[in-house]
C-alpha cells in the first residue's frame, strides 16, 4: 500500500483574510449595535441586526482549507492528456518537446497528482482535481495573466498556453503577439486568445531584480567595442519585466535556479547595492536581499484588489552521479520516486527566506508549494531528449543531460492544475464561485 505524501504547506495570506471583512462605517455601526445590545437586551431589532452581521462574517469564514499540495502520485493507465505529445505548436523544441526529440516512452504521462481531501466545509466539495480549460478561459475573459521568472516558469507558461489552446475549436483564434508590439504588452513571449479577449505573457526575469548588462539583452555591436561589466542590483527591481506584470490580473513569479555560483560569478564582485559592489556575498544573503526588494516593490506598486500575486516554489532537479556539467544523469528514471522514501528539503535556508518573505508581505500571495510533489517525479525530465539528436549524437551527449526542465506534456501540467485549484480556493474576483 502506498504511503501518502505529506506536504507541510503554509497557505500564506489566508490567515489575515477575515480581518478585513467590514468597512470603517460598518465597524462603527457594529460597535453601536454592540452597545445597544449591552444597554438594552430586549432590543430585538438590534439583536437581529447584530446576528445578521455575524452570519455574514461566518459565511466569509467558510473558505476552503483543503491542502492541494499534500497527496500522492496515482497511476491512471488510460489518462487523457490535455494535449498530445507533439500536437501543440507552442512547445519549444528544446528543451521541453521530448516527444518530438525522440523520447521513446510515455509512462511518465500516466501519473496524476491526487491531493488528500482535507475538506471541513461544503466550499471544498466542488474543488476540481483536474483543470477545466474552458472554465479557466471563461474566468480569464478580458484579463492578462503573466508568468515572470526563469526557464522553469517558461516551462509552466508553455504548458498552460497548450492546455488552454486545446480547448479552442478554431486554433487560428490563438496567435502569438508580434514582436513590434510594445514590450510592456508582449513581454518576451505572449499569446492572444481572441475569443476570450485574453492574453498570457512570459517575462524573462530570473532574479526579479535588475541585472546590469545581462548577456541575453546586450547590443552585439556595442559589446564588441566595449567590454561589458555584468552585476546584479539587489536594491532595484527589474524594471523591464515589471513593466509587463504591473497591470496583470494574475501574475505567477518564480526565482531560485539562477541564484547559484555558476550564474553569479561565485558571488564575487557580482552583487551590488547602490554604488557598493560586494567583494563576496553568500548566496542565501543575496537571495534574501533580492526577494526583499521584490516584495517591497510589489507591496508599493501592485493593487491587490485587481492583481492576484502567485509565487511558485522550487522545482527539484534530479541529477544522479554528478552535477549538470559533471556527468549528472536521470535517463534511467521511468516512474515516480516512491512516496515512502523520506523527503529531505533541498536548500532549507533558501526555502525559509522565501516563505518568511511572503509571510511578511502586506500583499496576499498564493504560494504554490510544488517542491515536494515535484521531487518525486525524477522520471519527468527531458534527460537525453532535450534536443532532436541522432543516435550517435545522443550517445555522445550521455554526460550532458537535462534533469532540470520538464517534458511537455508532463509535470508542469500538474503545476497548472494546482494553480487553477488555488485560484478557485482563494475565491477572488472571477474565481469567486466553485
How would you describe this structure to a colleague?
With 434 residues, the protein is α/β, with parallel strands linked by helices. Helices cover 30% and strands 14% of the residues. The chain has twelve helices and 13 strands. Strands 4-5-6-3-9-12-13 form a seven-stranded mixed β-sheet, with helices on both faces. Strand 10 (271-273) and strand 11 form a beta hairpin. Helix 8 (283-301) runs parallel beside helix 9 (348-360). The longest helix has 19 residues, at 283-301. The chain is globular.
Structural key phrases:
seven-stranded mixed beta sheet; alpha/beta; disordered N terminus; 434 residues; 12 helices; four-stranded mixed beta sheet
Which strands sit side by side, in order, in the main sheet? 4-5-6-3-9-12-13
The proportion of residues forming helix, as a percent range, comes to: 25-40%
Secondary-structure-derived class: alpha/beta
Largest sheet: 7 strands, mixed
Uncertain regions: pLDDT < 50 for 5+ in a row? 1-43, 49-61
Condensed summary:
The protein has 434 residues and is α/β, with parallel strands linked by helices. Helices cover 30% and strands 14% of the residues.
Strand and helix layout:
Blueprint: H1 24-39, H2 44-61, E1 71-75, E2 111-115, H3 133-139, E3 144-149, H4 151-165, E4 174-176, H5 183-186, E5 189-193, E6 198-204, E7 209-212, H6 220-225, E8 231-237, H7 239-245, E9 250-253, E10 271-273, E11 276-277, H8 283-301, E12 308-312, H9 348-360, E13 365-368, H10 371-375, H11 391-396, H12 411-426
Parallel strand pairs: 3-6, 3-9, 8-10, 9-12, 12-13
Antiparallel strand pairs: 1-2, 4-5, 5-6, 7-8, 10-11
Helix pairs in contact: 1-2, 4-12, 8-9
